Structure formats: structure tokens, C-alpha cells
Amino acid sequence: MENTSDTVRNRAKRLRRTMGLSERRLWRLLRANQLDGLHFRRQHPLGPFFLDFYCHAARLVVEVDGGAHSIPGRSEQDRKRDQWLDERGVSTLRLPDHLVENDINGALFEIRRAITTRLGTTEQP
């Protein structure tokens, strides 16, 4: 029988292999500390959740929300998830997939703004 850490690791690997177009596009710009030297992880497990992107230094989650997030009841699930993370000192930034697809610079601006807020800096990190 597979232990829990192996199960989590395997699920994270599977999620990384099946990322959507918007997630892949954003990952190309976040990986290898390309965004202002900050380290991001993709499909990072935290508690019962897998986070699209996570910056530990800023304790910031970046979620790319596609059409599935407009399904009835999904916004309530997202709210509960965000609340669970917030109670643990982790903030969530939700970006619609169309922003990532059509205005990647706008998406990066929103991420930088959230990081600046989280780190308490007055200038862009």
C-alpha cells in the first residue's frame, strides 16, 4: 500500500503534467525565480489542497481560475478554501484564466502587487 506522502507526491506530479494552457503560460514566467527573484512552486500541496502556484516567502497562493470556477457551488468551495488558507496566514490571489491568456503583463502586475502587500514593501519586489 502506498503511504500518504507518496500519494500526495504522485498526485502533485499528475497535476503538474495536466496543467491547463493558462497555468503553463504563467508557470513559464514564474519558474526558476524569474519573477523578481521569488521562488514559486506549482501544484504545491498544503493541508487538503493543491495550490496552483505558491510563493512561500510571501505566503501567497496564485490560483488561475478557468470556466470550472463558474459552476454552481464552486465559488462557495473556493471561498471556504481561501478562508482555510487565510486562517493559516496564507493569502490567495485569484486570476481569471482569460487575464493570463490575453494580458500576461497585467497578470504579473497583479501578482507583484499582491506580493508587495504581503511583504509590506513600498516598492515592487
Automatic annotation (TrEMBL):
PANTHER family attached to this UniProt entry: BLL0828 PROTEIN
Domain DUF559 as annotated: residue spans: 8-115
Annotated InterPro entries: DUF559, Endonuclease_DUF559_bact, Restrct_endonuc-II-like
Coiled-coil blocks: none
One of the Pfam families matching this protein, by short name: DUF559
Protein name per Swiss-Prot or TrEMBL: DUF559 domain-containing protein
